[in-house]
Specification:
homotrimer; about 350 residues; alpha/beta; Udp-n-acetylmuramoylalanyl-d-glutamate--2,6- Diaminopimelate Ligase, Chain: A, domain 1; UDP N-Acetylglucosamine Acyltransferase, domain 1; 3 domains; 10-stranded parallel sheet; 39 strands; about 20% helix; about 30% strand; flat
């Protein structure tokens, strides 16, 4: 497996402002992290924090930012670009494209063990893997790749060039856009969690909506997006969900938002565009978050957020012994404040309200 | 797809105190949220907060509480009931029943690609989907619907009229009650997490119990209920679990409790009846929670709870800058309390212990 | 199903220092918890807290620690050992081995519905379940048991005597060691979450590494271990993961660490050996945790940890009313500290910095 820097620059020259300072006939055998790159490897440096690693790197070539041009060129062969991380991403795509064996996705054919209902519509250029099941009325568009054991429900739609890994479930009527990537175990369109209390029991509200997913969406392994109760659950274009993410019914996620692993968004919440959520964040239901809201890991959002910005709410971690002392005090924090107020009063200090 | 209000009232008249104020021959084409309902739609209003939407709603008919009778009737056709949300839930069930195409569940037959061990017992009225596997000794009762790719282990039991979506795993010996709904990717009866430390390694305790699930239980997508170590893990009647919920071995969940998404209950904990858990809540192991305990989202329960009530423990979320300041102070909260105590002492104030 | 204490001691005599005080011909019909054990049952007592249950237990025999020898022997038949919990674990293994019907794993054969690519290599002593799919180049070693509906990707390797429950996905090129146990829904080798921001969108970094899992590793139901971006994601020998655990790309987990349910480890973090993580703990990315670090449940680790020990950071849970008061105060904690400082200054007290 190899590439020439010439091939790399053919791509980067079109898609970026990257410039090669070095020999285009250099052979690249591997894409590597800067610190472990060997003499046939292409690496990148995007975080200035790791600049110290640059001088000592053995890499055949390093993609660096324009600010790093001088030390990079002094070291040796370099690709200089205003967005080195983006350029490196493009190179990984080129690498995978040139080495199709790196994937489990089969090339354009229907596996003999797959079950396709006669009333389903499968494009000639689509592939369907072993033991996949495509129900009546489902539409599988051009260039789609359905992995083994996938289940595509009645009337579901999978848009052009989308790739489903093994074991993906797309329930009846759900819509997946173009160029989406769904990882194994993802469940699109299970029932939302809707029950009415009655006489001490829970009475089910049948979930009559569906899930509508835009283009260029990626959905991680074992993540779940519930179908809407009445209207649909909507995931915008370019949204990226990591693994084990839960999206409740009637949630709307704006374009190009990204949710890290183990995030949960409760029902009927609307998330803006270009938002990010750190791992394990929880957003309660029926809230609205503006565009460009960034929620830190393990943070719980209990109210709507109208302003862009970074929001955090997690208990700081320390030694268990320290935690025990501080957490005990926290349980009487309100009383502490009251004691402080009384002291201030006794001393004639006016409370400084924040 | 449509219903007459006459059909709706035939159901609600038997199951509730609902009364129609309007024309029973009104045709309903859709069930809709109040704010977006069109002139052929049936909507409901249960939260008085949204009363303002009532007057402007274009809905053909709105189900409202008795307290809302007057403004509703002034607007137009109304169904008045003491429990409007419950009534609406019943209508969604009627809707789905009348429109069976809304589901991936096949009608009463064994898919030719399914594998059923000759020593399994399948009721004549049960259905089994594509590539489902039913092992020896398993019992599939009347009216059960097993989705595609389900795996029903040796000697497992699925009670009458239960519905399993595609990709559900029920491991050997586990018992599912009647009228249960299991969503895709749910795993019932994987091994509990039990290991004995020995010489710096973990030695497995084989998990010899099973999972016993009552009637009318719903289990969300990719949720897991582990089999017991020695005794069984038990889920009571009417319990509702959302997606990505983890139930450890030997947990017992009382009847009609409801757990939202991403909740985790650690092993050997006993949960009472009629409890609720917000999304992302964690309950440690070997605890006992009384009936009617309500745990807020993202709250961690570290001790048993003997009294009904609402329990909360989550760090309040604000701007990251504010969090940084407050979290830093939190790490020395105990010292702060001590400083306050010293001040009080210096001023001759007796500490007011809470 | 039964065992003689003679059989039990044949095992424990070799693997431990256990001694039987009683009749080796005693028949054991069941392994039970101490408090519910009947007169044909074998139980154990490892936690001195439950000593009171010993005297009243009806168990045929109880495994106890050497410290408990006297009260145990006074009660009746006992097995005395320095590690009673470990001994009991060994007995559960013996029990399962003698009762193979307790498992869904089929005995050494290829199910006729399985699909095995002609270019895959399956050991003669391996079994493959219904509808399992083994792709070209995959290697299934001796004694391996592949459950129904498993998907083993191109060039993946499953080491000797490993057991995969139904619905496990092992993606292309991933490596599973020997004697591993993977529970249903586990996904090994889905893409890591890597995207470069560019022009307001996310550009995918193809994930070119793989997952390498050591020997004696157990992975819970619906847990996910992502493939590395460039290098591999590595899970050491003897590591135990519970259900719904998320391991990001390029994480390294040291030998014999254990992670409880719903834990998430973000990308490029290195975890030491013999670490433990309570349920719902989150570790941010690019951190390093030393050996023997123990992270409490629901705790978020935001910085590297260099010293062994117990680390905690979770908001203490109480009544919702108390929480409301204290959480409100917490939002102005920094201001509170400032007020205290001013008071101290006013009184001429020197701030006692911690």
């Amino acid at each position: 497996m190899s590439l020439l820097l010439f091939d790399v620059m053919q791509l980067l020259g079109v898609r970026s402002d990257a410039q090669l300072v070095g020999d285009p006939s250099t052979v690249i055998d591997r894409l590597s992290p800067l610190e472990s790159a060997g003499p046939q490897d292409l690496a990148f440096l995007s975080n200035p924090r790791y600049t110290a690693q640059l001088a000592s790197s053995k890499a055949a070539c390093v993609i660096v930012s324009t600010a790093m041009r001088q030390p990079a060129v002094e070291r040796g062969c370099s690709i200089v670009a205003s967005e080195p991380y983006y350029c490196f991403a493009l190179v990984t795509q080129l690498w995978k494209q040139r080495h199709p064996g790196l994937s489990d996705l089969s090339a354009g054919h229907i596996h003999p063990t797959a079950f396709i209902d006669p009333a389903a519509s499968i494009a000639v250029t689509a592939s369907v893997g072993a033991f996949a099941c495509v129900e009546a009325g489902a539409v599988i568009a051009d260039g789609v790749n359905i992995g083994s054991h996938c289940s595509i429900g009645h009337g579901a739609h999978v848009g052009a060039d989308s790739h489903l890994s093994p074991h993906v479930t797309v329930m009846h009527g759900c819509f997946i856009g173009e160029r989406c990537v769904l990882h194994s175990g993802a469940v699109i369109g299970a029932d939302g969690f809707g029950f009415a209390p009655h006489a001490g029991q829970w009475v089910k509200l049948e979930q009559l909506g569906k899930v509508v997913i835009g283009n260029d969406v990626e959905i991680g392994a074992n993540s779940c997006i519930d179908r809407g109760a009445l209207d649909d659950t909507i995931v915008g274009d370019g949204v990226k969900l990591d693994n084990l993410v839960q999206i409740g019914h009637n949630v709307r996620i704006g374009n190009h938002s990204a949710l890290a692993g183990c995030v949960g968004i409760a029902g009927s919440t609307t998330i803006g565009a270009h938002c990010t959520f750190g791992g394990g964040a929880i957003v309660l239901g029926h809230l609205t978050l503006a565009d460009q809201v960034h929620v830190s890991a393990a943070t719980t959002v209990t109210r709507s957020i109208t302003q862009p910005g970074q929001y955090t709410g997690l208990y700081p971690t320390g030694s268990h012994a320290d935690w025990e002392k501080n957490a005990a005090t926290l349980k009487s924090l309100h009383a502490l404040r009251e004691r402080l107020r009384l002291l201030e009063k006794a001393m004639g200090v006016r409370e400084q309200r924040k």
